[in-house]
Write a structure and sequence with these properties.
Layout (H helix, E strand, L loop, with lengths): L3 E4 L9 H16 L3 E4 L13 H12 L5 E2 L15 H13 L3 E4 L3 H13 L22 H9 L5 E4 L6 E6 L3 E6 L7 E3 L7 H11 L4 E5 L6 H11 L7 E5 L2 E2 L9 H7 L8 E2 L6 E2 L2 H4 L3 H9 L14 H7 L10 E2 L2 H13 L3 H14 L6 H11 L8 H6 L11 H7 L4 H14 L4 H14 L5 H13 L7 H8 L1 H15 L5
Parallel strand pairs: 1-2, 2-3, 9-10, 11-14
Antiparallel strand pairs: 4-5, 5-8, 6-7, 12-13
Helix pairs in contact: 1-11, 10-12, 13-14, 16-19, 17-21, 19-21
This protein binds one RNA strand through helix 4, strand 7, strand 8, helix 6 and strand 14.
Amino acid sequence: MQVRVRFAPSPTGPLHIGGVRTALYNYLFARQQGGKMILRIEDTDQTRFVPGAEQYIIEALTWLGIEFDEGVHIGGPFGPYRQSDRKPLYRQYAEQLINDGWAYYAFDKPEALDAKRKEYEAQKKTFQYDCTTRIDMENSISLPAQEVNRRLDAGEPYVVRFKFPENIDITVHDLIRGDVTMNSRLLDDKVLFKSDGMPTYHLANIVDDHLMEISHVIRGEEWLPSAPLHVMLYRAFGWEDTMPQFAHLPLLLKPEGNGKLSKRDGDRLGFPVFPLEWHDPKSGEISSGYREQGYLPQAVVNMLALMGWNPGTEQEIMSMEELIKLFNIGHISKNGAKFNLDKAKWFQHEYFQQLSDEQVADMLEKQLTEHGITADRTYVVKVAALMKERITFPKELWDTCSYFFVAPTEYDPAAIKKRWKAGMTTHMAKVIEILDTVPFEYDAIHQALLEDYIKGNELNMGSVMNSLRLAVVGKTVGPDMLTLVMMLGKSETINRIQRAINTIGEIEN
RNA sequence: GCCGCGUUCGUCUAGUCGGCCUAGGACGUAAGAUUUUCAUUCUUAAAAUCGCGGGUUCGAAUCCCGCACGCGGUACCA
């Protein structure tokens, strides 16, 4: 049997990171099984449509390297792949269910249903449209056939509801959780077909999954409660023998406390919950994205893959290719996972280190341009190589290595206090003298400055070298001091030291 | 309320049909080593009486029952 899986988001806004994980798991499974990955847009709720959301979804998954074989953006033999484009298709299936006694027309107005719910609520009960209450409502079961036909002919709005059998156990076999059984008595007669002529999710997803020959439905746990309905639908249509297998994924939880990860949490705790930055077309609100924060797509993929799944070994760093090889549904965990920012950063750091010097140089060059600086490519690459291991995000580049390109204009007061001791101006003047007289080569300077001058005079290595660093860099962080001096060149280094001597001056302590 | 799912170090988790678990790894944390500084790297440590209570068994994190807690669902939303 050909494995065919689908990712079926609703274009109601930016794709949530939990949705991204669902897409990823579908993708990994499809690739590993040599199957097909399909993108289907579930836009049956026209009131929730958000412009740009569909494009966002495609762009986000493309950025992450999650590719499709068929879908709304590339077509395929089972199209169309947007449910609104399949609208004419669904009515006949709803009618088929009615004709076979699996569904019925219901004419209840939304206000009438609301009133009913309130009435029940007043008695501390919950109204449910089911086998015990449908006889009291306005539908083709409670109303005489004549009346039903009259209303239909008169064009009265109606919905189609599923007619759950009264008391049967329905078992859903879930690949992650095993058998889950629910009794039909507790399930309500869900609306299958809405009065606006569109199907609900329940009808559309069964019809489409069947027509598109989907073999495995891998989706979020929030669908588990309605899975029995879906199983019943397959049964009602007579498609049970080709029904897809189900796997309900655990939820992604917020980092603190409990509950589903939401947009708010991300903004509050300083990490994105969306793959890409999102500009809300209505409110104008901007939500940050992993891409814009500088996360590498491989890092996001790797991190997401391990939130709810593991390869069964202790390996944690895995490329997409390895994930595809190693992925298996059996190792998906049952419990929800809390998002952990530190771990996300760790993955990012790991993948950032795998970048080539050239790639980091590209990032750095872009930032230099923003600061109006042009520099020699070879020099930029050298800086990139030196700085790479010290940072996690591209945006840290400029802040941590600007001194390679511009002289410091101020000196860290804390560092002055700690390192610039009495007599330091004399030592710095001596450093200038050494740089000026000794051949400007790493080993020669090293010998003259570190060995002969500092060690020879039993000076404090930490103090002198850090003061030198303070003078040249402006603060006491950075790569190997002499490497830096060699890169800056003789005159630039001397100028910087001289300026520091003039600016900081002699300290008495 | 009702229904369903879940519950192992702070976090992600290993643990697949009971014994090799005096519960392993990773992130984070702490200490140390290396380094002229920072970062990296390396070493070590602390950290879960396996939600609680009962069983079953020679033996349970692993099986059964009850309870608690958390989450999800309970829309003409997906």
